[in-house]
User: Fold these one by one.
Assistant:
Number 1:
Amino acid sequence: MWYHVDPHSGIPIYIQLKEQIKKAVASNLLKEGEQLPSVRELAIKLTINPNTVARVYQELEREGIIETARGLGTFVARRREEYGAAQEDILERALESLMVEAYQLGVDQERLRIKFEKKLDVWRDRLKKEGDV
Amino acid sequence: MWYHVDPHSGIPIYIQLKEQIKKAVASNLLKEGEQLPSVRELAIKLTINPNTVARVYQELEREGIIETARGLGTFVARRREEYGAAQEDILERALESLMVEAYQLGVDQERLRIKFEKKLDVWRDRLKKEGDV
DNA sequence: ATCAGTGTACTAGTTCACTACTACACCTTA
DNA sequence: TAAGGTGTAGTAGTGAACTAGTACACTGAT
């Protein structure tokens, strides 16, 4: 639908596509259980190789974001609820990167907090817009 | 000093080193004007090629984080204070990535906020510990 | 059983990221 | 002006990342 990809951007095609799908899922544009376009269909629409789409789907499946069934298609997985040490660690690093980035950009802490809160609100709205189930 | 690097980690050496330096600057372990180890010195300590270190320094200079002078050495630059549309954009993306990541990890918004605040405090402490100038 | 849909495996080629070797250019001090 | 420090430039090789071509395997409906 709204997927698009630029082979000349320097960023690998499969990364571009993967990020778009991840974001779509996280912002509830793609809802739980919803079917994604087939490997071939998407490949044709984006004029890329089916294997490239397949790779994206495989990686997303390994990350537990989608589920795929041979002969049937690919679907958005149920959101995981568990939250262990590994997740904790990843989030920790992500936050640290954000701090470093902000500093490098010349953004002071107060400004960062405001930005963060604003973004959090936006996200909350997106998730609530079509309350799932 | 505390730099270390693993050639077998899968992550490029120059990325590892660059991130360490960026983080050191952002957390005020490396202060404004402070001199970094020379290309050769660091290369020998880490048993890597001088050019790899040089690449790190070049990229960091392009990002405005350090300043380099032929024949003299390399130094931590003054922190930039300007804050334009480009910066705004980068920060925006960083925040968005964080939201997506958190969602994927199964972290709800409230928990994310708490984590964020905690991290912000840690960072504030680091910056204040040796108030510059 | 057959068909038309789905995802998958295998293979291979091309590009480029990454690192290293070597030699050069600049600056400061004595 | 010579020496010893600094960063830099050019070149090259190895390997892996990325994508594509082609053929296979599974599923559900007819």
Number 2:
Amino acid sequence: MVRVGLTAERLTRAGAELADEVGFDEVTVSALARRFDVKVASLYSHVKGSQDLRTRIALFALAEMADRVADALAGRSGKDALAAFADAYRDYARQHPGRYAAAQLRLDPETAASSAGVRHAQMTRALLRGYDLPEPEQTHAVRMLGSVFHGYISLESGGGFAHTAVDPQVSWSWMVDSLDAMLRARAAS
Amino acid sequence: MVRVGLTAERLTRAGAELADEVGFDEVTVSALARRFDVKVASLYSHVKGSQDLRTRIALFALAEMADRVADALAGRSGKDALAAFADAYRDYARQHPGRYAAAQLRLDPETAASSAGVRHAQMTRALLRGYDLPEPEQTHAVRMLGSVFHGYISLESGGGFAHTAVDPQVSWSWMVDSLDAMLRARAAS
DNA sequence: CCCATTTGCCTAAAGCCATTAGGTATGAAC
DNA sequence: GTTCATACCTAATGGCTTTAGGCAAATGGG
């Protein structure tokens, strides 16, 4: 009985890697046990169960993604910041599709409130400060940016753009440009 | 042995209803058999299996949603059409969350090509004709509209907007307004 | 109208996943 | 070196999926 040295953290990291390889939906307690060459029941000493494992992976991905976005945003402002912000999310999703999917997991309000999710919201607001929108509109804009970027990434990764010849990268840039123009127009009004 | 009269169509419809009640992820061959008070194996005469069932529900939802959107679009143009288009999707997702989720199921390219998915794309293009965009941009705009609306609906249904007091309906209207303005600006340029 | 064939639904069984209960051995601390 | 916590194990239950093979109800040709 060789001790492998499992911990909740190692399981979470391995789960994140597994998610990137086979998809978040296929991340299962059994598959993870197999990967560590350990019996399934052994994992239950470290995580409460399947749901707990998935939640941990989601929180890990949210935090990692927030770090990336924060890095991308550092020292930038205006349209430059907007593009860096957008690319940080899209790049993360392309490099780590499973983790990105994990980050979309519905968390219960309490867990969500203590997650890196709030950093994402804060960074979006910080970004928008550059556009000087009055308060109700700032919230609208936060929601809109979250929607476009998340929606695009989700459709792109789902192969939704595969049937057209137009380069998704070009559409992405066009979209970021358009959003910048739109936000500047709204600020002026 | 009373015959219940199962067919692939009845199973699909019942599956769609079940999805709305318990979520698309919980739609299972077993649950559906239970609902018809029939043994699980009996369903396998009508659908190939779990994946087939889910695909059928997805195709059903895509078609139903396309019908709704087509109705909403009839006789409208410009911003009016844009708002009706957007609302048709959002209303469908709110009335039928499980079906809306089903409609996001990744289909293999062949199935997708013969699904109502193409009608969705066609209607989006038709809608955009009102804005008179040159060709490469039209594709960008199709993608952008799909992204914003899908993204918003997905975040809203996931409770992503629950922590702020601002009415999601107001943000939605603001977003539609902003998109309309943006598209008109792009047409002019 | 009846018999044959189709076919709708069944039982049985195997495989995989999740989860819990309770056992054994290992590594650390005294 | 003995003790004690704990890391990992075996065993067992229950759910979902899928396949194979059987019986009976519907259907239709003679």
